[in-house]
From TrEMBL:
It is a multi-pass membrane protein. One of its GO terms (biological process) is ammonium homeostasis. Keywords: Ammonia transport, Membrane, Signal, Transmembrane, Transmembrane helix, Transport. Belongs to the ammonia transporter channel (TC 1.A.11.2) family. The chain crosses the membrane at residues 55-73, 94-118, 148-168, 180-199, 214-234, 246-269, 281-304, 316-336, 342-358, 370-388, 408-431. The keyword Membrane applies. It is found in: Cell membrane; Membrane. This is Ammonium transporter. PANTHER family: AMMONIUM TRANSPORTER. It comes from the Bacteria. Residues 1-31 form the signal peptide. Residues 55-459 form the Ammonium transporter AmtB-like domain.
Length: 489
């Protein structure tokens, strides 16, 4: 009986539901506001902001991943006795930078400008609403509708790069506490000041239409100049090979891996600096120019060194690619692809000559940081003034070689000189102060036993032996036999 009744109840419930829907559905539909041009425009804008936010975050992740590339590159090019120290410094630099960038650096860089030289607010992100958006969107110094926290993270990833460049040139003999101090100072003061001048909409160089799309001058020349001053004041590593002959790399496999990661990360560095996907053509141009610059630089560095030494040198090929990437970073959005190739070729040659110059000056730069980042950061910035396309530049002025006269080049020269002068002066004060308090160079005992053993009590290869050590251990084992793991099981 019950089995026959249940289907009837279900049919009755379905019929009642259908009647209710038929009666009230038209009312509900009529109550809904029909779409308007204004509502559609608002929805489109929100969708674009969401897409742009995703784009900037993903490219920011790529830039942060470059910390891994720097770590592997330095670990590969250094001697074994200093690899643990370099890995820890690269890792902890990011940790230090995020805190000082949050507290001070971001405000100095992108806060409300005082005369175009320094930001005066947004410290500790204290003036941001909880959702991170100003009424007009973004932050005071950046023309963007993106959430302020998204912009903060993207710019932090750049800030971490500047101090990491410096770490490479000073590797193998820097006091670890000193490294923590100068990384904090760079992230809080010296780097953000240059950012304010160039990338803050109210910065004095920005108002003059100084062109540095993604940081050849702001990031790389700042890191390069700071690095060479630090390396000069530190003095050479113990047991350095004769000047003019680079010390052998500890692991070329790691160096190659690190360089390939950096090249990959550059697709966040340059394309991500568009801060949005609204202009797909620009993103494509930036990506293409970045790749052409890297490829041309790698070939130029390798070939130029081959003509000098008769050997196909991996290290010079790697450095050539990085030089091309650094060089094209300023102008990747402002030059045509053929100019990107010229910039890359120039970078590949300059990095070889730059290494020779630093060696001739008896300055120990283990990873050729100044030759790669300092020299080519300036070259790439000046190249905008030579090859800039009027259709692409911010002020619609062409470079010197394209009939634009000296207007654009003059501003580029002024910016390069001003950034170099300030950075060198600041670096001498910073490192000079550390030297005065005994926190620049590690204790002399570290020169005897190795900085890894002295500072960290560790080695990157704890189970790898020199032949003599292995023979000695085997002799000691034969005199004092021990039960090995298999015999004890």
């Amino acid at each position: 009986m019950n089995k026959n009744i249940k289907p009837l109840y279900r049919l009755l419930a379905l019929a009642i539901g259908s009647m209710v829907f038929a009666i009230f559905a038209p009312t509900v539909v009529q109550a809904a506001d029909p779409p308007t041009l204004q509502s559609l425009d608002s929805t489109t804008k929100q969708l674009q902001i969401s897409i742009d936010t995703t784009w900037v975050l993903l490219t920011g992740f790529l830039v942060f991943f470059m910390q891994t590339g720097f770590s592997m590159l330095e670990a590969g090019l250094l001697r074994q006795r200093g690899v643990v120290n370099a890995l820890l410094e690269n890792f902890v630099d990011a940790a230090v930078t995020i805190l000082v960038w949050w507290g001070i650096g971001f405000g100095i860089a992108f806060g409300t400008s005082a005369g175009g030289f320094i930001g005066t607010d947004t410290f500790f992100l204290s003036q941001l609403p909880i959702d991170g958006a100003f009424p007009s969107g973004g932050v005071p110094g950046i023309a963007s509708n993106l959430n302020a926290y998204t912009l903060f993270f993207f710019q932090f990833a750049f800030a971490a790069t500047a101090s990491t460049i410096t770490t490479g040139a000073m590797a193998g003999r820097t006091d670890f506490v000193g490294d923590l101090i100068y990384s904090a100072i760079m992230g809080a003061f010296s780097y953000p000041l240059i950012v304010h001048w160039v990338w803050n909409a109210n910065g004095w160089l920005a108002k003059m239409s100084f062109h540095d799309f993604a940081g050849s001058a702001v990031v790389h020349s700042v890191g390069g100049w700071t690095a060479i001053v630090g390396a000069y004041l530190l003095g050479p590593r113990p047991g350095r090979t004769p000047w003019g002959t680079l010390p052998p790399a500890h692991n070329l496999g790691l160096a190659t891996l690190g360089t390939m990661i950096l090249w990959f990360g550059w697709y966040g560095f340059n394309p991500g600096s568009t801060l949005g996907t609204g202009n797909p053509g620009l993103i494509g141009l930036v990506t293409l120019n970045t790749t052409l610059g890297a490829g041309a630089g790698a070939l130029a560095g390798m070939l130029f060194q081959y003509f000098r030494s008769g050997k196909w040198d991996l290290v010079y090929c790697l450095n050539g690619s990085l030089a091309g990437l650094v060089g094209i970073t300023a102008g990747c959005a402002f030059v045509a692809p053929w100019a990107a190739i010229l910039i890359g070729l120039t970078g590949g040659v300059l990095v070889v000559l730059g290494i020779d110059l630093i060696e001739a000056m008896h300055i120990d730069d283990p990873v050729s940081a100044f030759a790669v980042h300092g020299i080519n950061g300036m070259m790439g910035t000046l190249a905008v003034g030579l090859f800039g396309q009027a259709e692409l530049t911010l002020n619609k002025k062409a470079g010197l070689f394209l009939g634009g006269g000296f207007d654009l080049l003059g501003v580029q020269i002024l910016g390069v000189v001003a950034i170099a002068a300030f950075t060198v002066a600041f670096a001498f004060l910073m490192f000079g102060g550390l030297k005065a308090i005994g926190r620049l160079r590690v204790d002399s005992e570290a020169d005897k036993i190795g900085i890894d053993a002295y500072e960290h009590g560790a080695t990157v290869w704890p189970d790898v032996y020199a032949v003599e050590e292995f023979v000695e251990e085997q002799q000691n084992l034969s005199k004092n036999p021990r039960i090995n793991a298999l015999e004890g099981e």
